[in-house]
């Protein structure tokens, strides 16, 4: 009688321990890996990655000076499975202004939290970032 109970306890304990791991599952797209990438708009959808320490979504907006007094605006979004916690930050979005635009990095820590339907930043944050960018361009012109 003791053998089945020991076996059951070991199985339950193993199940509990494996379900309590910190590894996340995230979406990944528009990231170059070994010279290829899966686009976020791919009909197959983004890649599903496991064993991530954080999920990340990066939105980049840049201005390229094509010709004299002509600008080309580019936008790019990537979803990333972070395998190292070295550059991870606490959950939330972090805008960074660059010389030719801005980058918004959003970190989250639940399974598949970097999907396309989640709002990247609040509209207020986006308005502040874009206003600061335009204000800088007006002052520096």
From TrEMBL:
Source organism per UniProt: Potamilus streckersoni
One annotated GO biological process: regulation of synaptic transmission, cholinergic
Statement: the UniProt record of this protein carries the keyword Metal-binding: no
The keyword Transferase appears for this protein: no
InterPro entries linked: QVR-like (IPR031424)
Upper lineage: Eukaryota, Metazoa, Spiralia, Lophotrochozoa, Mollusca
Signal peptide (UniProt feature, chain positions): 1-23
Alphabetically ordered keywords of this record: Glycoprotein, Signal
Protein name per its UniProtKB record: Protein quiver
